[in-house]
Amino acid sequence: MNSSTKIALVITLLDAMGIGLIMPVLPTLLREFIASEDIANHFGVLLALYALMQVIFAPWLGKMSDRFGRRPVLLLSLIGASLDYLLLAFSSALWMLYLG
């Protein structure tokens, strides 16, 4: 396995860990902003938005990685995901959860 493949695997692992860590915490974050009976609806919408953003931005990121190389795009994506997780962790309003 070459070094580029190893780096891509590590980045993918870190991203998957971030997703795995935020999903169990998200209902607790939602409880701070909305009533208990609406948590499942908002959780579902947030998950759907996450999937929708992946569908929308995956082709664009693929084009950018063809243009600039895989490593810079993967690293920039990982930095963006890290900033997103920080926004989720320190959100003070429901709209911030949706933005993240």
UniProtKB/TrEMBL annotation:
Protein's membrane topology: Multi-pass membrane protein
Domain called Major facilitator superfamily (MFS) profile: residue spans: 4-100
Protein's cellular compartments: Membrane
Pfam families for the chain: MFS_1
One Gene Ontology cellular component: membrane
Entry keyword annotation includes Transmembrane helix: yes
InterPro entries: MFS, MFS_dom, MFS_trans_sf, MFS_Vesicular_Transporter, Sugar_transporter_CS, Tet-R_TetA/multi-R_MdtG-like
Regions crossing the membrane: 7-27, 39-61, 73-98
Alphabetical UniProt keywords: Membrane, Transmembrane, Transmembrane helix, Transport
Residues in coiled coil: none
Family that this chain belongs to: Belongs to the major facilitator superfamily. TCR/Tet family.
Function: Resistance to tetracycline by an active tetracycline efflux. This is an energy-dependent process that decreases the accumulation of the antibiotic in whole cells. This protein functions as a metal-tetracycline/H(+) antiporter.
The protein's name in its UniProt record: TCR/Tet family MFS transporter
Organism: Acinetobacter baumannii
